[in-house]
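agent: user wants the structure for A to I editase domain-containing protein from Lodderomyces beijingensis. delegating to structure tool.
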Amino acid sequence: MDQDGLGNKIAKTVIETFASLNLKSGKPTTRSNGVEEWTVLASIVAIHPDRIQPLTIATGVKTLPESVRSYSNGLVVHDMHAETLAVRLFNLFLLGECRDPASVWVEKSDDEEGTKWRWKDGGGALALFVTEPPCGDLSMGYLTSRVDSNEPWPLTEAATGENTDDSLINGVVRGRRGFGQLGVVRTKPGRADSLISYSKSCSDKLCLKQLTGIGNGAVASVMEPVFLEHLVVRGVKQEDFQRCFVDRFQVPGARHWTMISYDINDYEFHKSDTKEVSLVSLLYIVPQSRVQVLNNGIKQGAALKKQTPKAGSGSMVCNRNFMKELAKLQKTQANTYLEFKTGQLQRQQLKQQGRAHLRNWVPTGADDFSL
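agent: tool returned. relaying tokens verbatim.
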């Protein structure tokens, strides 16, 4: 496909696919008080010589506090940023395709460890499209150009209602604290008054995936690594992309992606000072026509009240469901989810190598459960 205007073609295709979904809920709406909602839209697309095909589409900007992990039990999705959800959906898409002998996307591949699957050569180049620059290091320049003051957050403003001393922050830069600090790991969420979360910024998570691939533990156990080749975004300078994803991540084996810019403004739910953020996330696996709405980390309509959610509350992209989908392909000898993850030695080594290179990667609490 001609590279000229490729970003706009991708943006137009994704936005039109999203707009074509006729749903009663899941998209930003106008509230009863007349205030409009906004959200971020992200999509993993396959780029072919003659077409662009969205594979997953997701919306969202929310992150749950670290404390929720203590009772999540594999049922709660803690990071609901659109980029993260689009990647999680892509993992679910891959597991489904591995069960389809006629899949046009994946194929079996015999390696030294036995039979695995791999992304087909004809599956297309994979790109991540986002309507806002991914949070964290990549977006610092974008944010700086859009605020009145670049003064760093005072530490006392962080995490209302929780201990905010340096031992809890652990040297990690929270959200947008310190615009002048570039090339550093940051945590979500971006608001200074939000409860503590150690979930890393989308910039940091995506940077690490240049080394590990975008497959999660379930997918990595049955598939060869799959890598994103492009980030499709607007309003980002090439120098910021270079610093965030290339200069600070000179790790042997890393497959650096490239940036494709777009400039159309057809998305109707962009962030605005006059709008309120949408509280729900839309999940859409396009080729499989699977749609679900996520609210507060679980399926819309279920309740999360500082205790383990009821059975059936977990969404299709929660960790428990990933293990159920994996079980349809192969059995695991692990007794717990944590044992399963730590047992993937090669993948764990890559993650540790990448995290050590990025520095100050404070781990989140374990979200463990029995298998």
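agent: one observation worth passing along. The mean pLDDT is 88.
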